[in-house]
């Protein structure tokens, strides 16, 4: 291998390293300044909704009943949720739907960040 | 020539779409990095003369391009390429200023003007195109008499003598006018982002 080819390979390796360094910083920036505020905002909305609904919904009782229903039969949670929702007021139904939608959004956002893990970008 | 302009427009639109998309999906930004990394590194190296410093400048410039994408969208009529080069040159200027402050005893030369817009004589075609990219975004903001001499020197590759003959100015005046034009171009670049 002559010196020129060696220099070309070295230069290409250096360029690749620089590109990875740049992308690592870009991912980090995206994570900290775009995704994290979004997820925190969604968690904030859920917290606010839960606090707001606490006077009308007993979350402790719901969790206790769900646990009892699910401990013997995991699929029992689905039946329990369906029955609980069908016997509640329209406003609680809407509240539950909102809670589910935001929870799905949070899960989606957290899963999305795994694709762009800045710590693995430089590997 | 119109084909060239059309190709550049398409290229710029393509880059703008990628920059826009990368705000949601950062992986797209790698396309821009891959495309501009080598020319940016050459331009930065021409300004600071050292590979390590040039790499730091390029890295910082790309990060600014990514995080200040909204500022580019607000800038009417600017092409992505000229804006990106302005960001790079500004980052290099800041780097030199910082360096100059900490090594003021060693630096007796004015590094900024001549390294950002060096005289094109003796440069290869690639370097000339890169210097033109730096200038492209600022030309329209210069007064006509300064714009003309810059265009003649950097885009038409005219010598000082040819510019003097074409404009009817003395050789000394051409040099003065070119220096003023470069100074003003640098000021425009500084206000570009």
TrEMBL record, chain A:
It comes from Candidatus Sungbacteria bacterium RIFCSPLOWO2_12_FULL_41_11. The chain crosses the membrane at residues 84-107. Keywords: Membrane, Transmembrane, Transmembrane helix. The keyword Transmembrane applies. This is Uncharacterized protein. It comes from the Bacteria. The keyword Transmembrane helix applies.
UniProtKB/TrEMBL annotation, chain B:
SUPFAM superfamilies: Sigma2 domain of RNA polymerase sigma factors, Sigma3 and sigma4 domains of RNA polymerase sigma factors. GO terms for biological process: DNA-templated transcription initiation. GO terms for molecular function: DNA binding; sigma factor activity. This is RNA polymerase sigma factor. Belongs to the sigma-70 factor family. ECF subfamily. PANTHER family: RNA POLYMERASE ECF-TYPE SIGMA FACTO (PTHR43133), RNA POLYMERASE SIGMA FACTOR HI_1459-RELATED (PTHR43133:SF8). It comes from Candidatus Sungbacteria bacterium RIFCSPLOWO2_12_FULL_41_11. InterPro entries: RNA_pol_sigma-70-like, RNA_pol_sigma-70_dom, RNA_pol_sigma70_r2, RNA_pol_sigma70_r4_t2, RNA_pol_sigma_r2, RNA_pol_sigma_r3/r4-like, WH-like_DNA-bd_sf. It comes from the Bacteria.
């Amino acid at each position: 291998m002559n010196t020129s080819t060696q220099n070309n390979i070295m230069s290409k390796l250096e360029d690749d390293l620089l590109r990875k360094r740049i992308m690592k910083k870009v991912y980090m920036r995206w994570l900290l300044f775009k995704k994290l505020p979004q997820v925190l905002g969604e968690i904030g909305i859920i917290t606010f909704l839960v606090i707001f609904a606490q006077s009308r919904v007993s979350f402790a009782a719901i969790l206790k009943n769900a646990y009892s229903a699910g401990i013997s039969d995991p699929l029992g949670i689905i039946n329990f949720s369906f029955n609980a929702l069908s016997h509640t007021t329209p406003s609680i139904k809407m509240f539950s739907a909102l809670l589910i939608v935001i929870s799905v959004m949070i899960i989606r956002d957290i899963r999305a960040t795994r694709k762009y893990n800045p710590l693995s970008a430089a590997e | 020539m119109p084909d060239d302009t059309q190709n550049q427009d398409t290229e710029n639109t393509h880059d703008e779409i990628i920059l826009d998309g990368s705000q949601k999906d950062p992986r797209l930004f790698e396309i821009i990095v891959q495309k501009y990394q080598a020319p940016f590194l050459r331009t930065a190296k021409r300004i600071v003369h050292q590979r390590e410093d040039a790499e730091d400048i390029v890295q910082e410039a790309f990060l600014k391009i990514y995080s200040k994408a909204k500022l580019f969208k607000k800038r009417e009529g600017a092409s992505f390429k000229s804006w990106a080069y302005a960001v790079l040159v500004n980052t290099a200027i800041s780097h030199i200023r910082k360096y100059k402050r900490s090594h003021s005893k060693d630096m007796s030369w004015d590094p900024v003007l001549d390294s950002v817009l060096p005289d094109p004589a003796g440069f290869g075609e690639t370097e000339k195109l890169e210097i033109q990219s730096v200038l492209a975004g600022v030309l329209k903001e210069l007064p006509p008499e300064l714009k003309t001499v810059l265009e003649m020197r950097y885009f038409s590759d005219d010598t000082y003598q040819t510019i003097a003959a074409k404009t009817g100015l003395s050789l000394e005046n051409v040099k003065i006018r070119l220096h003023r034009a470069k100074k003003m171009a640098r000021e425009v670049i500084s206000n570009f982002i």
